[in-house]
Amino acid sequence: MVAQTYRRKERPSSTLSDDGGDTASGGRGEAPAWPASLSPARLMDSDRRRRGAWQGLATTSSCMGATAIGPRRRCAPCRPLEWRSRAIWQASSRPAQANEAGPFEAIIHNAGVYRPGALRRETVDGLDEVFAVNTLAPYLLTALIGSPQRLIYLTSGMHQSGDADLDDLQWRQRRWNGSQAYANSKLFDLVLAFAVARLWPHVLSNAVDPGIAPTKMAGASTPGDLEPGAATQVWLATSEEPGAKVTGRCFYRKRTRPALATASDVTVQDAFLAACEQLTGVRLPSAVTT
After folding, report:
1. CA–CA dist 190, 275 (Å, integer)
2. Which of 33, 80, 122, 224 keeps 20 to 30 A from 7, CA to CA?
3. Which of 114, 186, 216, 252 is an active site residue?
4. Is 139 known to be catalytic?
5. How far apart are CA 8 and CA 2, in angstroms?
6. What values do phi and psi take at 251, rounded to 5?
């Protein structure tokens, strides 16, 4: 991934990645799909300018990424930072660089891949790529990046058909189904968001369904509007409105919407976190780190 970092004199700032999330990433999750004016990063920049702060957030998409923002005033661009590894064991060292730039006001976990007609692919770790990118990467970054005030995870309406069975997360025992793998990963993103809301009561942890829109993933002929999905992420990350300062909710166009009940099941949440810990060797802290 390529991340553009920004720095002010007193403290550096960092952005990990920005591909817009669920309907925004390309088939390989390797190219930016949002028009520059509608990317969550750019909209956050615009929002912060209106509120009297200057914020630099310009990145490309990634197989493992998040957009991070922090409280800072005047910033100046510095050398881009490249994170190219798809390996979980290598990527676990990357958040240390982000922690040096923190603490953050908000982190949006928005990288994703969707390949309904493609063959199953594995990362260099031997993990199913859809699960690793869409689900395990947000878990790992959440566990290793300290002190967020707000966390936003990108889910999808397809989570409603997701299966929370943890017995075959890597799709080695069943016939590969790209659409089902994606739906499962987006259900697990909700499980993660709600688990963090329960375990970290001082962090606002929510999920966003950006909806269907004409992106690289959905196709240029797809009806819909890109802006509401991005705007909802920005709103949750920056707004002081009471509606945005809640936790453990799923949002669509700045309104809460029902999520599959499985996502709120504490037994499922605990089992999911245990599975991620086993795969990564990293445990989600039971309280916010400082």
Report:
1. 15
2. 33
3. 186
4. no
5. 20
6. -115, 145
CA angle, 254 then 48 then 243, to 5°: 25
Per-residue model confidence as pLDDT tens digits over 135-150: 999 999 999 988 789 9
For residues 2 and 82, is the Cβ–Cβ distance under 8 A?
yes
d(Cα 39, Cα 227) in Å, to the nearest integer? 8
**Of 6, 153, 182, 252, catalytic:** 182
- Beta strand pairing status for 250-252 and 204-208? parallel
Supply the CATH classification number for the domain 2-280.
3.40.50.720
- Structure letter (DSSP) for residue 245: S
245 tagged catalytic: no
Distance between alpha carbon 103 and the CA centroid of its chain, in Å? 17
Question: 287 is written with which tokens?
Answer: 């309280």
Peptide bond into 103 cis (omega under 30): yes
Residue 151: name the closest of 160, 161, 159, 143 by CA.
143
**Rg, C-alpha atoms of the chain:** 17
Residue ranges per structural domain of the chain: 2-280
pLDDT at 244 exceeding the cut of 60 = yes
